[in-house]
Every structure is written in structure tokens, then in C-alpha cells.
Amino acid sequence: MMASGSDTSATSSGGSVRALARGLAILRYVNRMGETRPGEIAKALNLPRPTVYRLLETLEELGYVAFSATSNYVRVTRFAAALGDGYALTSELSQAAGPLFAEYGQRLVWPLDLTIYNNAAMVIQETTHGRSPLSIDRGMTGYKLPVLRTSAGRAYLSFCSDEERLLILEHLRRLNDPEDVPFLEPRWLEQLFEQTRARGVAIRDSGEFRAQTASLAVPIRSGGNVLGCVSIIWIRSAMSTGKARETFTAALSELADKIAGSLPD
């Protein structure tokens, strides 16, 4: 009987250690990727999908990961910030934006995007494209948008610090994307920043990216820093830019302020 009990204890202990090892491997993978789907985790770590979902649920209960409110992506939370790489703030932004996007998405109808700047691109973290009846795009979470040819990128550049703006522009010049070249002309940039700051909202409406649509974007600001941007996208033939500014600017600014205000201290 004692031997049997010892065997059971050893088996239980071995199973717990294996589960812990798998959970830590999943947490490290999510942290490294920034955001990912359970299926991608299962494939990358060669684990059964049910096991991945079960361990993710446990990690979520413990506060180390969070599922997106608008997609099947999972991210680390602030409690996993010790793992490094700065993805905790992105996760907090996404968690704050999720319920607010649901609320404002119903009010504004046209799709909304939450983007952050990362490595010469604005990356969509949350979106209502999948729920908006007026969207012509789907599966936009994780999509990388060009900085100079989107309202989100223009908003970010206009309101970030001078030092960060110079670094971003230098990076874009080194990349030398032919589609970006016309928008890197110093006088054009100076005018863009001046107009965007005066309006409080950035505009894309000349077919420079996704010719069927136009967009407005405002920055999410906290402590003097730009954390990301909120955009609204509409079909160009359905509404003029002037009408869109009149209809959406105040609501977008309010939404950005609420997201910033929802972040933990």
C-alpha cells in the first residue's frame, strides 16, 4: 500500500512539473511574440491544442495573460512584465480598449482600430472590423500599416516627442520604400505636422493607402508620451472628409482619453 501511495505521489508530482514546464514555455512564447493565437502556440511548442487552451486559461486566471476582447489573440499582462520586452503596456492598452471599442463601435458603426508603433509600422492591436457592418476588411488584428501613408502613423508622428520623431523618420529614410519617398519631403512633413496638431486629428483621404477608404486618427497620450493611436475608417465614396471630421473627431478624442484613463497607475 505504501509503495502504491508513493507511486501515485510520484506520478502526481511528475504531472505537476510537466504542466508547470509547459505553462512556463507558453508564457515565454507569448511574451516573445508579443501576441499570438492558441493554435500558433500549439504548433510552435508541439503541444495538443486542448492542453494549450487549458494552460492559457490557468495563466489568465492567475493574471499573467489576457485574451483580446475582439479577437483570438492572447498577450502577456503587466504581471508578466518582469519577463521583459515591454509588451505588458501593449497588453494593458488592448485590455483597456476592448470594452470601450465595443461601446463606441456600436455608436460610430464605422470600424475602429487601436494601433501602436513598432519597427517602422503601426500595428493593429484591437479592431472592430470584424463586427462593423460597414467594414470591407476582416482579420486586421496584427496587421502592419505604413507610418507615413496612414492617419494612425501621421497622428503618432505629429504628437510624439521630437527625439522619437527624428529616429522614426531616419529609420524610414534608411528603409527607402519607394511608396514612402514622396511623403518624406521635409516641407511636406512640416506642413503635415502643423496641420495635424492644429486640428487635433490626422487625416488620410487621398488614396495613398487602401484607395477605397479614408481614415481619421488621434493619439492616446499619457504622461507626455504617445502610447498608441485610435483610428476610424470609412469608405471614401460614402462620406466627405469634412463630414467625417465633424461627425467623429470629438468621439475619437473622447475614446482615446478614456483608454488612457483606464490604464493602471
Automatic annotation (TrEMBL):
GO biological process terms held by the UniProt record: negative regulation of DNA-templated transcription
Gene Ontology terms, MF aspect: DNA binding; DNA-binding transcription factor activity
Spans traversing the lipid bilayer: none
Keyword terms: DNA-binding, Plasmid, Transcription, Transcription regulation
Cited PANTHER family: DNA-BINDING TRANSCRIPTIONAL ACTIVATOR MHPR, HELIX-TURN-HELIX TRANSCRIPTIONAL REGULATOR, ICLR FAMILY
UniProt protein name: Transcriptional regulator
Lineage: superkingdom: Bacteria
CDD domains for the chain: HTH_ARSR
Residue ranges of every copy of the HTH iclR-type domain listed in the record: 17-78
Residue span, IclR-ED domain: 79-265
